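Morning run. Coffee first, then this:
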Amino acid sequence: MKKFKLYLQLFWTFFKIGLFTFGGGYAMISVILHEVVEKRKYISSDEFSDVVALAESTPGPIAINSSTYIGYKMGGVLGALVSSLAVCLPSFIIIYVISLFFSQFLELELAAKAFKGIQCGVAVLIVAAAFKLFKSVKKNAVSYILIICSSLALLAIDVFSLGISTIYLIILGLAVGVAVYFRPKSRESEPTEEDLVLMTKNADNEVIAGDIVEKPAEHDGVSATDTIGEGKV
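And here it is:
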């Protein structure tokens, strides 16, 4: 029963993603992130960033690849099939219906205006996805340099029509990622005085609210506090 409920939930989640997302590809990232990370919490934001990178690098639409991975993680092979089918089904139904009245559909002025509005919405979804993914990126100099360089490179390729194959870009990104991962790590900074205060390595000390409070010294089973009260110290 629990498995059936999970499959039903996966189907409805990805059916909504496929139904209400226009533009496909990157426009769907923001919607998928909202549904599977923020709402359902199927995966973490860091893992979602890896899923997007993997889905974009492998053949096939990013939405289907992402749904297949997430569905497999949550419900195995059947979960992957259910999720992949659900995300494709709305598009299939809509395109099939439009194809029946394609010539009449193109002549509708309302449809033309609707598509222009959808194009603006797609741009907003892509920008929103970029900002959400940026939040999960580690904030350091290397990350900022990679983001700036890759953005400028993609902009130059588009503006100057360099015609560089996507395959080369994927291989280059893979090489840079591997190089960054295996780069020599800098030595960790020495612990500060505050860090030392918070440590509890010494069994004779107690850490309370970040301050070290030393235990009263004991002599022959009698604490210093007791002897002071008796006037023996």
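The CA atoms of residues 17 and 32 lie 7 Å apart. Good start to the day.
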